[in-house]
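Sat 14:20. Reprocessing the chain from the morning session after the first attempt stalled halfway. Input below, unchanged.
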Amino acid sequence: MLTSCLLYTVVGYLSGSIMFAVWLAKLRGRDVRAVGDKNPGAINAYKAAGPAIGTAALLLDFLKGALPVAAAILVAGLEGWWLVPVIIAPVVGHAFPVFQRFRGGKAIDVTFGVWAGVTIWEVPTVMGAAMAVGMLVLRFKEDAKSMLLGMIVLVPFVAVRYRSLPMTAAALLCASLVVWRHRRELAPR
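Finished this time. Tokens:
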């Protein structure tokens, strides 16, 4: 189990470190870090290089989280505490990518991906619904507040639904990292 855990954690981190938004936008001669909030993510890829590049970046960021985690579960049979570093690795890789001198993104798409790798549709749907409530019902003007609501809902949902301390710990670590990466947008003004 230790060897599989280490292997999938390294693969997950390296997968997370691939900044698809940056690379895809470069195909169009654009720099995603020159638009919007300067974040190397899918939204800025959309702003810098158009909807096709933005959509491709979003899908690839999702998959770089989902695939290593799903493979660790389905191929290696990892579960419990062995799975926690594998879940966290793509999120850490996106936030601190080795291929971009550890200057990465905010890790929302990859977080949706890792939880799809674990639960298929359930956790990403709950996070997305919470974020939609923030935008559409509560009418949060800042996207970061809707993201915060999604991350706040993630942890108790996983704790209650799965009744697993390792999965709850993984949810708390993912949520904490994503919220920390949004700290500037969430700071009082």
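The chain has one domain: 2-186.
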